[in-house]
Design a protein that fits this description.
Helix content is 12%, strand content 35%. The chain is mainly β. The strands form two sheets. Strands 4-5-6-8-7 form a five-stranded mixed β-barrel. A three-stranded antiparallel β-sheet has the order 2-1-3. The chain starts with 9 loop residues before the first helix and ends with a strand. Bound molecules: zinc ion (ZN). Zinc ion (ZN) binds next to loops.
């Protein structure tokens, strides 16, 4: 059986339902160290993952904004049983953080011991390029 075309980064799977032409700027932003979201020019709702249209007011007039990097952990999970594509990884922690723009971001949380991770703690959202060369983003310890 032929292998299905696959994408290594978990983050890409999160936004996979968005047409690539509209997310190109998002991936370019990550390469430049910026985590971008879209903001509706009409009602000012911020979307992450970026959305091409605003479900609230049905406008398609969106602008790109760079998210602040300060997030507060709302929930997290420590993944010991990894999905097949992550068998080679060590157990990891995935968290949902809320940014001051009001959006929630799901990302890996790195730089902490599991015992240190608490709901409500402040973390930093950073853009990076993974060891496989994919642009990605994660939460980490604030400086
Ligand atoms: Zn809107």
């Amino acid at each position: 059986m032929a292998a299905m075309p696959s994408i290594k980064s978990r983050e890409m799977k999160i936004v996979q339902d968005i047409p690539i032409s509209k997310t190109l700027q998002f991936w370019e932003g990550l390469k430049q160290g910026k985590v971008l979201a879209t903001k509706c020019k009409k009602c000012e709702t911020v979307y992450f993952p970026p959305a091409a249209d605003c479900p609230k007011c049905l406008a398609s007039d969106m602008e790109w904004i760079e998210l602040s990097n300060e997030a507060t952990i709302e929930t997290f999970t420590h993944v010991v049983i990894r999905p097949t594509t992550f068998q080679q990884n060590k157990p990891y922690t995935v968290a949902i953080g809320r940014l001051k723009e009001g959006v929630r971001v799901l990302a890996w949380l790195t730089g902490f011991k599991l015992s240190e991770v608490k709901v409500g703690m402040k973390v930093k959202l950073v853009a990076k390029v993974s060891s496989e060369g994919n642009p990605t983003y994660e939460f980490t310890r604030p400086e």
